[in-house]
Amino acid sequence: METDQYLEVFLDESREHLQAVNDNILELEKQPEDLNLVNEIFRSAHTLKGMAATMGYEDIASLTHKMENVLDLMRNHKLKVSTEIIDVIFLAIEYLEDMVNSISEGNDGKKDVSGLVQRLDQIEKGNPVQDSTETRIDAQDQVVNSDDLGLDEFQITIVEQAKEQGFFPFQITVELTDDCILKGARAYMVFEALEDYGEVIRTNPSVEEIEEGDFAQSFSMIFLSGKESTEIKTIIEKVSEVKQVQIGNLVTISNAINPAEHESVENIAETAAKDETAATTEQSSQTSVKSSGSKTIRVNLEKIDDLLNLFEEVVIDRSRLEVIAENISSHDLTETVEHMSRVSTDMQSLILAMRMVPIEQVFNRFPRMIRGLARDLNKQISLEIYGADTELDRTVIDEIGDPLVHLIRNSVDHGIELPEVRQQSGKPAEGRLILRAFHSGNHVFIEIEDDGAGINREKVQEKAIENGIISRDEAEVLTDDQIAGFIMSSGFSTADKVSDISGRGVGLDVVKNKIESLGGQISIETKAGKGSIFSIQLPLTLSIIATLLVKVQKETYAVPLSSIIETVILNKEQIMYAHGKKVMDFRGKVVPIVSLAAVFDIPEAEVHEGNEYSVIIVKKGDKLTGLIVDSFIGQKEVVLKSLGNYLGDVFAISGATILGDGEVALIIDPNALIK
Predict the structure, then answer these.
(1) Which of 144, 531, 555, 608 gives the lowest tally of CB atoms within 10 Å of its CB?
(2) Which residue of the set 68, 391, 417, 637 is catalytic?
(3) What whole-number distance in Å separates Cα of residue 675 and Cα of residue 626?
(4) Phi, psi dihedrals of residue 498, rounded to the nearest 5°
């Protein structure tokens, strides 16, 4: 069966099912008696198993099959939900995610799941859950059961056939000396020494990991040979830097295959297909009316990019036609251009909507991550998520995940204190981590807030001075937030000890660079003993935006409509001053005002004509600012163009556009002007 044509569908649906399992498992831990959750998880695992088996991904199929067996016991009241079991299922989800990602990168999606399958098998049999990091090391000639080693059906068949031909299966563990540097090369020499005496059918860890030296000081294998165990041991011990060799005889192979417990991939696929057909038939009979109106197709993102690029040219030509129509008094031309504008505006909204996806796709991974980090660090942390339905361009969604992981791990490790420390400070033992997203103008803001210890100014300041970033005199005039910003410098770390979570002086500088490469910015607000807020500002990367065109002297600027609250005409006597800055009264609220001419250093007329100012009220979150301009031109949809690498970042300018008359207008970033 040719499956390449279904690969994209398989990948998308696999990720959806894995996310569903992940979300429901988190809820199940909170509500262990809710069998509806178990049923939902079972259905997702069952569907994933069937798809993987059909596509020929055996490791995914075998792992989900074992998960399914455990879940089936839960939903039939034969097994109680426990933290230990949920830990194993979470580990299985991580394995499955790794394999799906491997397939998406063009690999075969294979992974050594035998150890995890063994743990799930132990749970299924009612035995205590063992830690996955444990390695079985059996004494020489000790009997090792193949079922305990997690051999799959194919490997068991090979062993059975080898025994019939007079070969013996051995479980061999090789331990290298502590001072062995090139472990991968030494392991290769062991395999090469055994090559003429038999065949290796399984290794732990995988062959790839062993070749790269990605293991501790020992590795194990299952080896088929006609030699005695003493001869094999002697052969291996001749390889230099081998410290110890342990060999166990592999027996009771026939007991390893239990027809009631093991299915071939073909049988899994066949069973899954039947189940899916039955489920589909049942579901369709119940929801035929609803499903008949729901039709979707999957479109490659590059095609949407190409469509958007072509439409940008249409928008530029549309603007040109509007200018021509104004200069030619033709009713038919004017009417046609107006109709084209309405239709193209609707087309534009549809195209842009295709690219937008909720940031929930990124946020969904964090509850499980926080759970694991909290356990590793012996901390109590609650995660609150707001604005998960905020939409962001797909290209940004794909890139922002890793920076957010870094920031969250940093907050969990450095920000939130241990329960006993928090209680001594008068705080609740459980720390709060808040993840929120919201739109502001043509930008999206993502904030990571914690109620931890905050960033220690003195510690960061001394480290910055020590690293030569600033002088002591310069440090004295900087605010706490400005000092805190130095933790984003390359190689900067104030951790007292290096942990697996953070503290190596790498990560936050990478985060900053990544966000800036996306056209965004990151800032920090911190209060000692109260906590910190990391705020990320990202462009929507919408190539076409609605703006208000304004005049400042002879220059034309475009202000995104999404940032504008209102436009007002302000009398000169209505301008007031607070702390030496101009302010105005806007509906009972004191709002600061700034002149765009002053911001961009445009020579102003010596005397302002008249007693009135044109003011645009713009917003960023709940903060408002008034922008003084000379006059309003009108609304216009424009194509957002980057200023390019040569100009780099220009304060308060997010890009430029070409107007219908050929003039270039700069596009204002109001967020930079709101303090």
Answers:
(1) 608
(2) 68
(3) 11
(4) -85, 130
